[in-house]
Amino acid sequence: MLELDSLRRVYGDVVALDGLSFAVRPGQLCGFLGPNGSGKTTAMRAVLGVTRLDGGEVRWRGALITAQMRAATGYLPEERGLYAKMPIGEQLVYFARLHGSSAAAAASRVAELLDKLGLRDRMGDPTEKLSLGNQQRVQFAAALVHEPDLLVLDEPFSGLDPIAVDTMSLLLREQAERGAAVVFSSHQLDLVEDLCTTVAIVNRGRTVLHGEVRALKARGPTRLRVTVDGDDGWLSSIPVGAEVIGRNNGEVTLVLGDDVDAVGVLQHARTSGVVTAMSLEQPRLSELFRDAMEERA
Fold it and tell me: What is the pTM of this model?
C-alpha cells in the first residue's frame, strides 16, 4: 500500500503541502483531484523523491519508500521527458532495459504496448514527428513498460481524444487488475468517477475528502427528478427537508433530506397531474468536489 502521511512542503512563504494524507491499496485506481495550485504535483513528486519534504512520510508496504522502489515506479510527469529525435520503439526498449528487463522481454513488451495504443506502425518514427496526443501515448507507455507495482501519473489524459482516453483507461484497469496501485491526477471528474475506485480531493495542500467513490456518493444527498403532466402547484406542499434545486422543461429536481421519503414526494406530485417520469440519483463526483471546496473555503 502507498501511504502519504502528513506531507508538508514549504517554499518561502508558500505552503504547498500542509499535512496532506491519503493511501492507495494494491489493485486500486485512485483519482487525485484538486484545483490548480492545490499541491497535487508537489505530492506526486514527493512520492518519487523529486521533491524534498519538510515533514511527513511516504511509505510503501508499511516501510519508508526507498530509492530502489522509486526507481521501479511507473511515473508520468507533468513535464514530458521523451527524446525528440530517437525512434519511439528504440527509446521505450531503452527505458525498459534501464528498469532491468532483458532485451528480448523489453522488445516484446514495447511491441505489445504500442499495439494496444495504436502506435505499432509508428515504432520507427522519432517522437518529434508524432502529434502531441500520440506523444502522450508514448509517455504513457514509458510509465508502463516495466510493469511497475506502483503507478504515479500526473494528468495522463491531458490533450487526448476520446478514443485515446478509452484506450488508456482500459490499460489502467488492466494494471489495477494485476495488482498495481495506481494514482493519477485529473481535472476530468466524470472520467475519474467512471474509472476510479477511490478518490483523494485536496485543496491548499490538505486532504479535504478521501474514500471509495461509491461510499462517498452514497453519503451525499439523494436527488429526485420528477416530471408531471400538469401544473407545479404540488411544490407548495412538499415535505419539510425536500428542496427544489432545478426546473427544466417540466422536470423538477429536488434534494431529499435524510428523513424525506421519495414516495411521499411523488404522492404530492400526483395531486397536480400524472407523473410521466421519475428517477432517484446519487450526487455526481463533480458535486462532491464543489462541496468539498466550499467547505474548505
Answer: 0.83
